[in-house]
Amino acid sequence: MNGESRISWSQIRVGAAVAVALGVLAVAVFFIGETGAVFGDRYNLTTFLPNANGLIEGASVRVAGQDVGKVNRIEFVPVEQRRGSDQVLELTLAIDRNVSNQIRQDSEARIRTQGLLGDKIIDITPGSPGVPMLEEGDTVPSAAAIDYEELFGSASELVDDLAATLRTLRSIADSLLAGQGTMGRLLMDTTLYVDLLTTSRSMNEFLRAVAQGEGALVQLAQDEELYADLRSVIAGVDTLTATLVTGEGTLSRLLTDDGLYRNLASTSARADSLLSALESGEGALGQMLTDQELYESLLKLLVDVQAVVTELRENPRKYVPPIRVF
């Protein structure tokens, strides 16, 4: 009986040892999957983001695509302590110390998506030589992550615009095929096509005639006498222009003499005054132009005078007595 008890206790101890070993192995596997190290030395860095975009605590942290740690904590930054719109969330990153020389002050942390499931991770760019390394508690500058929702929204708007453009092009094509509008008639109207073809042929014949020196227009262009006459006319115009500029001649004095201009202005003013007086009926001439009774009397007088002159021509002896010498 005692032997059986000792064997039983031995089995229990063995089973407990196996269970502990399995537990340690499970913990090691977990840490290997999360950070790539089992009990490696780590140090903490922080970074700030305006939006987590689905990133959760425990997400992987990578440098140049290699797992080097995990996201330990994601916390909101108090509103009063924010230094900008990009400091809404504070992330604490646990990083393997053996890669500390890769993360420097010019490194940048950004959210990336991995796999088809869209898991979010933090990816840190390696630093540059000569730039100081980041120490425990330092902040890794963050870079804006690609907002796929905004990108998809923009792509959707672009697709909508493209669809609208295609609909417009289809409408234009339908109008052209239906012969609507000027372009549609140009494409579908055979009469207009024939007219354009005739015009094109006429233009070709005209250009051929010009090239061969035929026609009045070409003769005018090639006539040396006409060219000389045109040059003479142009020279005369140049001479006239020079005369006007130098103040010679009557026309030039009309253009340049201030005294003559004032005399003309005075004469024009007097003429305006005279016309105004005539229109208002002032003076004898004005009354003749505006007084209807005077006009009719003068007209009657002219008629009577004309009648007397006619009578004198027809019967001069009636009004002129005979002249006797002796």
From TrEMBL:
Residues 43-127 form the Mce/MlaD domain. InterPro entries: Mce/MlaD, MlaD_Phospholipid_Transporter. The keyword Transmembrane applies. The chain crosses the membrane at residues 12-33. GO terms for molecular function: phospholipid binding; phospholipid transporter activity. The keyword Iron does not apply. This is MCE family protein. Keywords: Membrane, Transmembrane, Transmembrane helix. Pfam families: MlaD.
